[in-house]
Amino acid sequence: MNGSAEQHSGDDVWAEPLPTAILVLADGTVLEGFGLGATGHAVGEVCFNTAMTGYQEVLTDPSYAGQIITFTFPHIGNVGTNEEDVETISMAGASGVRGVVLHSAITDPSNYRATRHFDAWLKARGIIAISGIDTRALTALIRDGGMPNAVIAHAHNGQFDLPALKAEAAAWPGLEGMDLVPMVTSAQRFSWDETTWSWPDGYGRQTAPAHHVVAVDYGIKRNILRLLARAGCQVTVVPATTSAEEIMALQPDGVFLSNGPGDPAATGEYAVPVIREIIARGVPTFGICLGHQMIGLAVGGRTVKMHQGHHGANHPVKDNTTGKVEITSMNHGFAVDRDSLPATATETHVSLFDGSNAGIALTDKPVFSVQYHPEASPGPQDSHYLFDRFVEMIAKNKAA
Ligand SMILES: NC(=O)CC[C@H](N)C(=O)O
Residue limits of the Carbamoyl-phosphate synthase small subunit N-terminal domain (predicted)? Predict the structure, then answer.
């Protein structure tokens, strides 16, 4: 079936049942394909993700809110989906992903853990997808021109109001300046003790925590919480708008600042002042991705929008403190501008793909953060050591 959508071009296409889905870029380019998942239409920024596995974790990572993900790996969906590999806190909760672009049609699931076909899973989660797209060409377009805004639309009858969809794609303001944290943060405080998955037992529990960590949820992933629990922490997760006083009242041994969607600079009004206050009080603090960017802002730095961003599971990063290279999972479209950082912020990690900043540590406070995703999920586990670094920092601070 793949490829036949290309045969439907010209004016007659809108009278035919195919294509059943289209991707309309803000510049008016229309890519035709086959609809999967939910019907309807959605607008977002198109990014490409190069991970070969872990599509279920990617699509449930709240950091992708506002984005349409095109997978460069062609066989997405081939291991189906299961009830466990979900990264949103609410198992059925929407991550905010606006759409999925695939090369190949989805095959039947082939994995012992699969409980549902990927297409049915997309539909149940309200995610629109399109297959039959030349994802290599789309990726090359993004590499050359940056991440475009687009509308993804799916209709069984192949009827699309093209002028309206083009207008919507062109009018969408884009992720720069957009705060999407309120869409994905937890409404209420809760406690977490689940640890990581292993075969054949599945997930474990932390029954003897040594430290109490307050994790601020800007769109947190489950595997971050699991790794904090595994490292010996009892974790209290709090909503993104929690004040510094409320956090301090929980008597944290450490504070964790999570990943999350949108423009870090747009969260400046409520998140950054709280982070500044927590840092000033000398509480050991660890940030990942959006949390990293907001620490950068809190110490007076600047964040910038990237050209094509980093989304994948094979990004080499150098740890300047050890000289070691780790292969990391990445998902970001903004970055900390290293030249904007104060002298009290040391660059601890750097991306070996493009030299962009991948981590900082403060010299005068027990604070460090990374731009990438050490929790992986999906991706390599090279960077798990950072959770131990955080716990060592907490223990040292307690002993002081
Ligand atoms: N994974 C994240 O936390 C992403 C952070 C931010 N939204 C970015 O795109 O750069």
Answer: 19-153
The residue contributing the CA closest to ligand 1 atom 7 is 261
- Supply 194's token pair: 């689940």
ipTM of the complex: 0.98
Is 251 within any annotated ligand binding site?
Answer: no
List every span in the chain annotated with CATH 3.50.30.20: 4-171
Instruction: Tell me how far the alpha carbon of residue 58 lies from the centroid of ligand 1, in angstroms.
Output: 13
Nearest to 149 by CA among 16, 291, 46: 46
Decide if 375 is catalytic.
yes
Q: What is the pLDDT of residue 6?
A: 43
Q: Which two tokens stand for residue 337?
A: 């501008």
Residue limits of CATH 3.40.50.880 in the chain: 181-399
Find where tokens 């853990």 sit: 113
Establish whether 57 is a catalytic residue.
no
The predicted model scores a pTM of 0.94
Count of beta carbons in the 10 Å neighbourhood of residue 15: 9
CATH class of the domain whose range is 4-171: alpha beta
Structure confidence at residue 93 (pLDDT): 82
Strand partners, 176: none
Which of left, alpha, beta for 316 (phi over 0: left; psi -120 to 50: alpha)?
beta
Q: Find where tokens 């510049």 sit.
A: 27
Q: Give the pLDDT confidence score for residue 92 in this predicted structure.
A: 83
Phi, psi angle pair for 252, to nearest 5°: -75, 145
233 is catalytic: no
Q: Count helices and strands (H / E) in the chain.
A: 10, 19
Q: Which amino acid is present at 295?
A: I
Residue ranges in the chain modelled with pLDDT below 50: 1-10, 12-16
The residues lining ligand 1, judged by C-beta closer than 6 Å to any ligand atom, are: 63, 259-262, 264, 289-290, 331-334
DSSP 332: E
Q: What single DSSP character describes residue 200?
A: T
Superfamily of domain 181-399: Class I glutamine amidotransferase (GATase) domain (3.40.50.880)
Give which of 154, 166, 164 is closest to 18, Cα–Cα: 154
C-alpha 136/C-alpha 71 separation (Å) is: 9
Question: Strand, helix or coil at 119?
Answer: helix
